[in-house]
Amino acid sequence: MSLNDEQMDKLLRELTREEAEQELASLRQEARNHPVRPSEKFDFRMRQMISREQAKAKRNKRRRWAGNLSKAAAILIVLCLGVFLIAGQERIQVWAEQVQRVMVSIFRTHTEFDYQLPNQNPLEKVKRLSIGQLPEGYALEHEEKNEVSLDQVFINQQKMISFEAWSTGTLSVVLDSEGADYSVINFNNNQVHIYKEDNHIIYHWEQNGIVKTLIGDGDPEVMESLFEYLISE
Amino acid sequence: MLPILLSQIEDPEDQKLITHIYEEYYGLMYHMARRYVKDPNDIEDIIHDSILRLIHNLSTIRKIDCNRLAPYIVKVCKSVALDKIKKEKRLIPFAELFDGFEETQEPESCAESVEEELEAKDLRRKWIRLLRRLPARQQFLIFAKYYLELSDKEIALHIAVSEKSVRTLIHRARKMLKEILNQEEREDQYEP
User: Fold this and answer.
1) Nearest-neighbour CA in chain A from B113: distance (Å)
2) What are the start-end ranges of the H helices in B35-162?
3) Is the CB of residue A192 less than 8 Å away from at least one CB of chain B?
């Protein structure tokens, strides 16, 4: 018997249907012949588990929200501080402290970075990521560049890589670090803060008056090579 | 730190759906699990893990046709049971693997007028037996691909492998099935 691909597909569709129906029919017969009910203890355990899963999902949803907010809030701080530069240093300090208090109340486990950079450095020379530097399948989801910031987001199905660079005189960054392994390394005379949790990695560093953050849940080796590319002069 | 995307119960409607599945299909899952383990605690563990696996595959449940939900639940339970056996390196008597599988087959008739029909049915039964000879993982892949009609991407999410791996595994399963069919055919030819 020699089947071509089309015949094989047809045969498999029919066989799986018949097999599934047979298996289900035999189980239904068994269930009719020997009806069973869960014990009270097991039933209680199962219903608890289903409720617990919903609670866990809600927590994850809050964490996702907090993660997104972290990024959005960080950008907001940078942009606002850029605007407030003209209003004077003291006023910026007061405003930054207020923002910090809000951030601390949202992210109970967090790291704060305060940058008092001497000059506003232009972003022209900042290296950007391009599709060719990422593994196949990534697409540019978002890119925005203005005088004080660069923001790029690349998506590959469920994976994400994001790169942000900020250049401003005064800057506060808060990173949610809950459950992350934190380490600091020295790379090309730059102090680099690294956060790792499962497949997620954040590289955060300051380089020549520009603060850069690489975030992603891609392959760790890919993330490392992207980081090395971005930090190399 | 960063968000971890998991397909879990977020919607109260999903909680109702999972509770309904647990209540409605407890009996079927119980009898499926009982084919592989005899200890009541082990049976309960398999049902618990099956429900947990279903929770993590809510996107699949939402997608598949409601008429195919019961076979899907049964297959998930079977898959969990086989994983448990494999994990605990338990051996089950070969005959027990097929307990109940033949119960619903129609009784054979000796009437000559339906001889061709019976031959065709025999052949189908043989093919189904061959399908069941595939390794459990490949059986599930074939089931997901051809019965549930899930895309490679959906199957990949379900069994936590890449799409490429799904394509490779399905290709291997088809090849293996063809080999078994050819082998059976050769054996039939040599039969006196």
Assistant:
1) 24
2) 40-55, 58-63, 69-87, 94-97, 115-131, 136-142, 152-159
3) no
